[in-house]
Design a protein that fits this description.
The chain has helices at 3-15, 18-27, 35-43, 55-68, 91-101, 115-121, 128-156, 163-192; strands at 71-75, 85-89. With 211 residues, the chain is mainly α. The longest helix has 30 residues, at 163-192.
């Protein structure tokens, strides 16, 4: 490989989005998988701490990775009732993924987009009972998600190759527990609110400015 080719390869790797590395990471475990199987695996692991890409995004990344030589694919034989394309990581892909995973570069800040908190932030435009209902619905969803995380942890418990994914899932379990605690505290905060009276000097028409 010439120095120019090496430089171009590095530039290509820097331009890969995190989703591409996540899909390649799913392929880094033993075995070949279809795009549908990768989606199921993402739903059972990645979504608890990162994000589960749509099936269309998974296939788009698989095509990108295969074009780069980071993944290979083959069609299933006539023994299967439906033709499927199975994907596997290549040696070049494993080397690139290892370089990305072991990079000294910072992972970057966590990005939080919390629709419930956004609605609470705009609570001055909503009925108090509606806000409570939103938080209670969120609590119920979080309980379900916590159960799903724990099910994924149980499934990974006896697999030695899932030692690091178990750490990520354990973090996800703790995050769901923290989310429950935060939502319950939010309910308590809502209960302590008293509607401002018309003409109250503290009843600002807009967001309080500095000073």
């Amino acid at each position: 490989m010439t120095s120019r080719q090496f430089s171009n390869k590095q530039d290509t790797e820097r331009q890969l989005p995190p989703t591409a590395w996540a899909v390649l990471g799913l392929l880094s475990f033993p075995g070949e998988r279809t795009g549908y199987e990768l989606k199921k695996w993402a739903d059972a692991s990645l979504r608890f701490f990162y994000w589960s890409p749509a099936i269309s995004q998974i296939y788009a990344e698989l095509r990108r990775l295969e074009a780069l030589g980071y993944a290979t694919s083959r069609r299933s034989g006539p023994e299967e009732p439906r033709t499927k394309r199975r994907y596997a990581i290549s040696e070049a892909g494993r080397d690139a993924l290892a370089g990305w995973a072991d990079s000294p570069e910072a992972a970057g800040p966590a990005v939080l987009k919390h629709p419930l908190v956004l609605r609470i932030w705009l609570g001055h435009l909503a009925a108090p009972e509606r806000l409570r209902a939103l938080v209670e619905e969120h609590l119920a969803r979080t309980e379900v998600q916590l159960g799903q995380v724990r099910a994924a942890l149980a499934q990974a418990a006896d697999n030695a190759e899932w030692a690091h994914p178990r750490i990520a899932l354990r973090w996800s379990e703790l995050r769901e527990l923290a989310e429950l605690e935060l939502a319950r505290a939010m309910l308590a905060d809502l209960d302590r609110l008293t509607p401002p009276r018309k003409g109250d000097p503290d009843n600002h028409d807009g967001w309080p400015g500095p000073g």
